[in-house]
Amino acid sequence: MNSYFGEIKNAAATLWDGLKVTFPHLINLGRVKQERNIDTKNYFQDTNLAVTVRYPLENIPVPDNGRYRLHMEADDCIVCDKCARICPVDCITIEGIKAGETLGVTSDGSKKRIHLPVFDIDMAKCCFCGLCTTVCPTECLTMTKVYDYSETDRDNLIYHFGLLSPDEAQKLKEKKSE
User: Which of 91, 96, 148, 165 is the most buried (most CB within 10 A)?
Assistant: First the structure.
């Protein structure tokens, strides 16, 4: 068991060890962090600069190949259902209603023959694996650079990309059944 003065000596030594790490960073705080791209050589190795950013006014750049929020371009979707089938956590819900005629052409030239009343992505379930974007034949499903989408209600994390309102979808279903 240490004596009273031994404990004080131990506390001072521990404090000194922490300050040896902190003081060099405090000295470098006066240096202004230069604007640099994430592709800059040794971007993550420069430990001498202050790394505090004034979020949301400043953001740390994100890599181009990062996997963040999903976005779907509904006009290009051919309702092939490949994304929903490959999703390991079943966060994509798709419903399609066959059309009697061609509905149009996607940006890559594919013909659209199915109405898209429901295309929902539950980002609360999504594990950001990117498999759905890989299998999409028309590349209408992509990952964006948006990484901050905090919500106070989990229901707001379900993104709706369907092209029809529920009433329009019901009318199409009734018309199809006649």
Answer: 91
